[in-house]
Amino acid sequence: MRRLRKKKLRQILKEVRLSKDNLIVPIFVDENLKEPYEIPSMPSYFRYPIDGVVDEVERCMEIGLKAFILFGLPSYKDEKGSSAYDRDGVIQKALRAVSKEFDDAILITDVCLCEYTSHGHCGVVEGMEILNDPTLELIAETALSHAEAGADIVAPSGMMDGMVKAIREKLDGNGFQDIPIMSYSAKYASSFYSPFREAADSGFAFGDRKSYQMDIHNSDEAMREIELDIMEGADIVMVKPALAYLDIIRRAKDTFNIPLAAYNVSGEYAMVKSAEKLGWLDGKAIAYEILTAIKRAGADLIITYHAKEIADLI
What we know:
Distance between the termini: 25 Å
Helix content: 25-40%
Largest sheet: 10 strands, mixed
Mean pLDDT: 92
CATH topology: TIM Barrel
Shape: globular
Number of helices: 11
Strand content: 15-25%
Number of domains: 1
CATH superfamily: Aldolase class I
Number of strands: 12
Structural class: alpha/beta
């Protein structure tokens, strides 16, 4: 075995190759900003004003990163998250601005209500209950508004039952049959999301999200969720988080013949950055190893906050 581990041979014998084409860059678009704002719990990561998003996309494109997923921080919030599907909302403005400058950028949008609701939950609320069915029309309308503004892919993340079907019907009924859906199909109620809630200002006012996000103990449930989304019309399915759920990624890849995405989430990023700051590990090397593990587990696409810093390594 050691004969095949010689330095000259290692490159040609790699079983898994991480590529810039595999990576999707998350971008936080904040309608309330005039200058970029560094997120305290996510060192070296920023929220950008709308005009700053164009500059950030340009920087990424120059180093070979072409795919982006946009998250919005609106100027106003209400009980139903109406700024999410406002045709002049923050994501809609950002999509038009970026599309005008870059024909070849792949623009994906997070389709959810949590950043836009006053209570911070991913759906319509009645008392202390998050209502599934009344939420579907609002999610579908949000996806349609993104497609109209220039999204290449819409990515529903709220884990509402029937969300993929509602979006597919809304898009098809309005002439957007060619817009793919990348569904957050197996999204766990994870503790790894905390920094994101600060980044996207999407903390919830009461309770938790366990009534609609998955139980961290379950694997079979993830397969059922993914299968349902595929039946409803998902073109790409996703597992989130990634690092603690490599077994789910592998099982999904083995079970379903469909493009598979994984989300290397904010808490995973923050742990690496915190240890790097203390000098405990080589941040870039660890990030590369983590992303390689996610790819090796079976992910075709990886959403990651590490994309820019390791682009030169791959």
